[in-house]
Design brief:
Distance between the termini: 47 Å
Strand content: 25-35%
Largest sheet: 6 strands, antiparallel
Structural class: alpha/beta
Length: 476
């Protein structure tokens, strides 16, 4: 299908702010699943989604994410050579507010331009088929329809919305949507599958002005908050920060409930591509290629008498004996063991860990920063040891500490270390001492990663004992 040049390219609105708790412990609040390479190509699903809509039929994307993920988003976009607008939500308000912001921003480019709302964490098995279906839906959207891409169900899921197709529309392969049902119970889900209803994939195509009009009618509070947040937005480095007070006024509601269940303009395309939201460990197992025993084994693992299982390790040797249909996921600080059939309850487990105040519920050992990352090795009374990696050109803030001294041992690369008025280069197997209260900074002037072991010694070693004097990343 060709795209008429005078119609303009489709504007992708990429939703990249979710937490992905059902894939804990790999996916956590500090690094959720959309930014983690879960498949075999070494790319995150966010990066794959960007590539999928990077051709001439698409405009530069609008990526909507949270403040904590802004540098992860920027780095991953740069890694795949894709530039776009990165918009920061002050807090999560569900999908309706994010879609409204995207529509308002896209409308400023071209009011009747077609937008594609897509999640950053979905797996699409045939990118060309996805694009073809989007182009078909976009043609119907140009006529004023709000389109979604429907997926043929493979089981009776209670986690997806369902689509009942109506009469065919003028554009080949598109249909009016007779009914949009959000997340039914088990009995209704089984009935919908038997009737031939489709899953809602969460990919929507619409003209910006059409979505704005529907929001104005169905959820004016959401639209008013989005408009106010865009009007009061401010630039921050290469990011756009939405106005905090205006955005917080948005009701917490999904775009499914806000618009799709109510609108008379809904339409759908029966998707021709394979799709998964990789929403749980059993769904990830389903898109992997198992061995002769039906196992998916990743990392340093060993199994005996085990069948139909997903065993994944990101560090310690993980051995499984005599189990069937289980999920075992090992990380340095947490291990998950679950029946594969119960994998959807991991989200409830994370909620319980949060209630218990367990830091493992939200925080990885490895914490990503705009300059690289750090990972705790050990912590005890009056000391903490970290492994720090600074990417080429990366520079930490100019800072001081009130309660601790630090020792930096270079184990890879070259470190440029500022200590008060002194600036000195340190090479592999050399160490710098930073006394309590000194003004200091670490920079990687080289072409390879800088790695150091940092030993902190003092009465308090918390992250809030950092007084930033100057920061090239403008962190608050």
């Amino acid at each position: 299908m060709s795209v008429l040049s005078n119609e303009g390219p489709i504007v992708p609105i990429v939703m990249a702010g979710g937490s992905g708790t059902r894939l804990w412990p790999v996916s956590r609040e500090t690094m959720p699943k959309q930014f983690i390479p879960l498949l075999d190509d070494g790319l995150s699903t966010f990066q794959t989604a960007l590539r999928r809509v990077s051709g001439p039929r698409f405009a530069p994307p609008i990526v909507i994410t949270g403040n904590d993920f802004r540098f992860i988003v920027a780095v991953q976009m740069q890694a795949v050579g894709i530039a776009g607008e990165i918009v920061l939500e002050p807090e999560r308000r569900d999908s309706a507010a994010a879609v409204a912001v995207g529509a308002v921003l896209a409308s400023a480019r071209r009011p009747d331009g077609v937008c594609l709302v897509m999640a950053a964490d979905h797996l699409i098995e045939d990118a060309d088929a996805f694009v073809d279906d989007c182009l078909r839906a976009a043609e119907a959207a140009r006529g004023g329809r709000i389109m979604t891409l429907g997926i043929a169900p493979t089981f009776a899921s209670t986690g997806y919305g369902y689509l009942r197709l109506g009469a065919a529309l003028d554009v080949a392969g598109t249909f009016a949507l007779e009914e949009f049902v959000e997340k039914p119970d088990r009995a209704h889900a089984e009935g919908y599958v038997a009737e031939g209803l489709l899953w809602n994939s969460g990919n929507f195509l619409f003209r910006a002005d059409a979505m704005i009009a529907e929001l104005e009618s169905a959820e004016p509070g959401v639209l008013a908050a989005a408009r106010g947040a865009v009007e009061t937005a401010s630039p921050d480095l290469d990011f756009v920060r939405l106005g905090i007070d205006a955005f917080r006024a948005a009701p917490k509601i999904s775009i499914d409930y806000a618009v799709m269940e109510k609108t008379r303009l809904a339409g759908a395309v029966r998707a021709s591509f394979g799709w998964s939201d990789i929403g749980s460990w059993d769904s990830l197992y389903a898109v992997k290629t198992p061995d002769g025993e039906g196992n998916v084994l990743e990392g340093p693992v060993s199994v005996i008498g085990t069948r139909g299982s997903l065993v994944r390790s990101e560090g310690p040797l993980t051995a499984v004996v005599g189990l069937e249909d289980v999920v075992v996921v090992s990380m340095a600080d947490a291990v998950l063991v679950a029946a594969k059939s119960e994998a959807g309850r991991v989200k409830d487990l994370v909620a319980e860990l949060l209630r218990q105040g367990r830091p493992e519920a939200t925080d990885h050992l490895r914490i990503h920063r705009p300059w690289g990352w750090y990972q705790r090795i050990d912590i005890g009374d009056r000391f903490q040891v970290k492994h720090i990696c600074v990417k080429p050109g990366g520079v930490l803030s100019l800072q001081r500490h009130h309660h601790r001294a630090e020792h930096w041992v270079v184990v890879h690369g070259t470190a440029e270390v500022t200590i008060d008025a002194s600036v000195k280069l340190f090479h592999e197997n050399e160490a710098a001492y930073l006394p309590i209260g000194c003004v200091h900074r670490l920079r990687n002037p080289g072409k390879i990663d800088l790695r150091i072991i940092e030993v902190q010694v003092g009465s308090y070693t918390g992250e809030d004992d950092i007084v930033r004097i100057e920061d090239v990343y403008a962190r608050r």
